[in-house]
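Encode chain A's predicted structure.
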Amino acid sequence: MPFTIDRRTFLSAGTLLALGLAPLPARSSQAVPGPARYGDALAFDFERLRAKAKQLASAPFEAPKPPVPEIVTTIDFDAVQKIKFRPERAICTGGSGAFPIRMFHLDKFNGLPVRINVVTDGFAREVVYTREDFAYGDPVLRARLPADLGFCGFRVMNGRNADTDWLAFQGASYFRSSGEDDQYGASARGIAVDTALEEEFPRFVEFWLEEKSSEPTIVIYALLDGPSLAGAYKFEATKDRGAVIGVTLELFARRDITRLGIAPLTSMYWYAEGDRRADADWRPEIHDSDGLALMTGSGEHAWRPLINPRSVHTNSFFDVNPKGFGLMQRDRSFADYEDDGAFYNKRPSIWVEPVGDWGAGAVQLVEIPTGDEVHDNIVAYWTPKRPVKAGDSLAFAYRLYWRNDEPHVPVNLARVVATRTGVDGIPGTEAHYDAHKRKFVIDWAGGPLTALAQRFDVTPVVTASRGSVSNAYVVKVVGTDKWRALFDLAVDGTETVDLRCYLRLGEQTLTETWLYQYAAPA
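Encoded structure for chain A:
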């Protein structure tokens, strides 16, 4: 049987497995100084990690076995809140000491340990688990735990005396940063395999942590393993207006892979201003991200608002050597959400910037129906055009920007700031509303529109994959710098319609391209 896991099950119960490098020659146990809580020193570098991943992929996959599940499965959400990593036990990775590391304890939702090592001067030593690392609110639970339980992940703290973190790795190959406003939201993953098919979740099974002494950067190496592939990863993470993480990876396929997702991003979208439902929560909007931004290889900028579909939707945006894509949170006003607990207005956007040529392929967007805000139901990634076969190796490099906005916002184009839909026709009239028609309203701001006075020769260029478009026009919204495009779509049947729109003045393109997928009511 293939080792797979249901997406919803995984997202509510992320797990990790333990697997480490075979011992390598070392000079002596004194090569890396440290207390007794560290293991023996082993020579380490990325080439050794790459060789291990390749070796791992040449052998059959071995499913992990959780330690003492009869105990760990009792550590639910409430129980894990009482287990605290002791600040004085934080791991120092050398260098400036700016990035102390605290460990995550195993629990019901993360029940498999992962090995964690500290690298200094080309040698790595394992951080050995001990119950003294944690303060347990339940002494009975502490006494029942084995002495070699292990950790399920780690987080990088904001400073020596800080109780907040800015980077965390926990659960399969998931990791995330708190961005510019110190608020976690969307996540990234090392790899996605067969998303929206029979999805599997490869895991980072071992980490090596190293701080550069010459600059405030922590380097995280990771070994990935899963039923279909193994891989070697290098993350170079820097705090810079949020976080910037350079990623280098090499993958080795055990077997054919139908859909491989490079640089996958995962987020939550329930509803926004354009698709509120009758039974929606009282808050105006609820989402970690509200759209997919694209910068194609040809330089076109596009914006695809997210939707909460009635069934799973997978959209492919074909390209060659893309310049970037990301799941973005453009609505940044507190009034957009009115939520003083989740603070969706502070949640970071994540932008992927490829390094080098990625060739032909597609950015794929997967949208999964959800009825609440507890499930991550949005996935975006790059999938290569060339099929992945058993025995293949693939290498990629990219940068991840965890910020409020894209790192390279175009100054010569306005951007979409809101998308709304409603009944067709003119508000306030007695005209009969047609059930086969829908009105679309798109607001734009910035770029050349900012200083543009009201005029009526700005035109919307609208195309639809089926149906007919009518009543298309553009106006400047009174008292603002926003411009608004409106049009009606008439369509029969329930097959989805792909829409495109941008604004033009004569031969000048004024805006990015708005993309949308509309499904008429059944």
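The longest strand covers residues 243-253.
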